[in-house]
């Protein structure tokens, strides 16, 4: 049995489907990843009759209704979002979002004399040979006769027959054929998901979350289209507060919906720590409410899939949409969201740059929502969530097959309970060998995006450690203000001694310090600048350091996990120094974790 059918449809029909809602294009609400020149090239290919690739759709499965009849599913777009968005931008004139979530127009200009298309700019705008925008002509907003007359007025020496021929060809773009591959509606969700993933292994990679967004955007019966807006609008509010005015002015229906009331607090709120996108939003809400991790299962459940009978039932679809709605609302609940962010910050993870795994945050928020729903006391909830977050970062729990790991973790927590499962994870991954060898080895790196190093910085922020050679300046403040990272053995000093960049940029050679201290140390060897610091303390002159006693100096070295041997160290001791400091850093992390 064929898994698909192939047909040709004119561009005009395709755009009619979009306008009527027959086919859902949620990506119109999210940043458009093509640049304007690719839009130009698409229009040029259509004008010349070149193939532009296939649009792939899948009709939702027929769902068994309560009266026993079958519902006819609507089309879900599987592939071709960017091409359709490009067409709606260039031909319909619809605005698209750039990467900064600003709405922009993409104007494609046309030169009939040279049969060339280009992105409109000031030069073309001021040139009489260029038609500033193609969409009024293609959309019948202006007649061909009027378009030709206006062009000839601006270009009286042009060949009128040639101009007429080429403007007519321009108008015919809407009649050009685009290939449509429609997947058979009888295909099961797993097969469609596999097709979706294989299609998107090349070009602009889309995720199963895009599949879910297309799915819910195509649903009006259960309010899926409004859920899609809830997700998009909340994520946009985080980065663009001005978008609220657009909703008030242009989307009255959503403005008067409970979803808007649930998210409007973010129009004046802030989030520089988590900053979830639509994938994160969906993942947390789905995993929390459904206790599953694979988005393909969510598509199946929203379609009404009965996993036992393999049939599709309206009751399952209705219940799944309601569960998803509840999960999304719990995600955006101001109390839940802000308490979770305070919890994350309390671990010492005070900056987004210290958190390299977004899925560690996602699962931790999932766990937070679940434990609160299950009635755990707040203190217990915070303890388990903080430990899970740091543990998952340290072992890179979600760095590989994240969906499978998320699916396993939520199911194991449901079966065993969080206390027993967390203990199991700690015994499996955080044994003595990890703390004494594995973690120490993880710190042997020159990458500041290393999980172990970032957790070390979080530990320093958590205990409010003071910056190197500073009396009062805190490491937390320097990270927040993007302060200087200083080389304990200055890099110019080591470079002059023929040490490689990979070696002198080891994270065990890094400390946060004030800029003035960093400058005054320059390229002195540690034994040189530490001798000066000690002499200045004895003479009560604060220059390199603001520390005013040997006790304070000793405490400062301990807080920054710096071996006391630094007092006499030169380049001959550097590699031994790194080994000693990695051990101290690992011990700091272990003590910090056990306190959480």
From TrEMBL:
Taxonomy, superkingdom: Bacteria
Domain GmrSD restriction endonucleases N-terminal: 14-216
Classification via Pfam families: GmrSD_N
Name this protein carries in UniProt: DUF262 domain-containing protein
């Amino acid at each position: 049995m064929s898994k698909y059918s192939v047909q040709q449809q004119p561009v005009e029909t395709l755009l009619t489907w979009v306008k009527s809602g027959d086919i859902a294009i949620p990506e119109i609400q999210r940043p458009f990843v093509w640049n304007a020149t690719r839009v130009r090239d698409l229009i040029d290919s259509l004008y010349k009759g070149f193939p532009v690739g296939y649009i792939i759709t899948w009709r939702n499965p027929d769902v068994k209704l309560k009266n026993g009849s079958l519902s006819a599913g609507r089309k879900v777009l599987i592939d071709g979002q960017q091409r359709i968005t490009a067409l709606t931008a260039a031909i319909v004139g619809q605005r698209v979002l750039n990467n900064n979530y600003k709405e922009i127009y993409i104007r494609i200009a046309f030169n009939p004399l040279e049969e060339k298309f280009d992105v409109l700019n000031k030069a073309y705008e001021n040139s009489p040979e260029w038609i500033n925008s193609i969409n009024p002509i293609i959309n019948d907003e202006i007649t061909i006769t009027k378009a030709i007359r206006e062009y000839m007025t601006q270009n009286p020496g042009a060949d009128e027959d040639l101009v007429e021929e080429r403007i007519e060809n321009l108008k015919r773009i809407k009649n050009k054929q685009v290939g449509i591959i429609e997947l058979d509606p009888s295909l099961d969700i797993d097969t469609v998901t596999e097709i979706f993933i294989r299609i998107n292994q090349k070009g602009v990679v889309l995720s199963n979350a895009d599949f879910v967004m297309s799915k819910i955007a195509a649903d009006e019966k259960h309010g899926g289209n409004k859920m899609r807006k809830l997700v998009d609008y909340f994520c946009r509010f985080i980065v663009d507060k001005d978008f609220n005015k657009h909703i008030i002015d242009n989307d009255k229906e959503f403005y008067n919906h409970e979803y808007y009331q649930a998210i409007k607090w973010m129009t004046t709120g802030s989030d520089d720590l988590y900053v979830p996108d639509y994938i994160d939003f969906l993942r947390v809400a789905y995993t929390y409410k459904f206790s599953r991790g694979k988005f393909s299962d969510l598509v199946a459940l929203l379609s009404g899939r009965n996993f036992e009978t393999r049939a599709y039932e309206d009751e399952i679809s209705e219940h799944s949409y309601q569960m998803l709605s509840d999960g999304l609302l719990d995600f955006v609940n101001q109390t839940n969201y802000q308490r979770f962010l305070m919890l994350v910050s309390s671990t010492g993870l005070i900056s987004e740059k210290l958190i390299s795994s977004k899925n560690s945050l996602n699962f931790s928020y999932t766990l937070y929502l679940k434990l609160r729903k299950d009635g755990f006391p707040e203190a217990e909830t915070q303890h388990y969530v903080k430990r899970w977050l740091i543990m998952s970062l340290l072992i890179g729990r979600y760095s590989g097959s994240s969906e499978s790991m998320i699916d396993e973790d939520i199911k194991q927590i449901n079966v065993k309970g969080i206390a027993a499962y967390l203990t199991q994870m700690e015994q499996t991954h955080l044994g003595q060998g990890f703390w004494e060898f594995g973690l120490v080895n993880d710190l042997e790196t020159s990458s500041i995006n290393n999980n172990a190093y970032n957790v070390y910085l979080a530990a320093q922020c958590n205990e409010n450690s003071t910056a190197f050679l500073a009396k009062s300046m805190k490491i937390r403040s320097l990270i927040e203000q993007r302060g200087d990272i200083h080389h304990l053995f200055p890099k110019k000093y080591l470079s002059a001694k023929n040490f490689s960049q990979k070696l002198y940029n080891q994270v065990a050679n890094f400390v946060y310090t004030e800029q003035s201290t960093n400058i005054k140390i320059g390229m002195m060897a540690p034994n040189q600048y530490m001798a000066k610091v000690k002499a200045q303390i004895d003479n009560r002159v604060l220059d390199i350091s603001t520390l005013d006693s040997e006790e304070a100096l000793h405490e400062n070295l301990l807080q920054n996990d710096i071996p006391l041997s630094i007092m006499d160290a030169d380049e001959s001791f550097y590699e031994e120094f790194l080994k000693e400091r990695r051990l101290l850093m690992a011990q700091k992390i272990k003590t910090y974790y056990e306190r959480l």
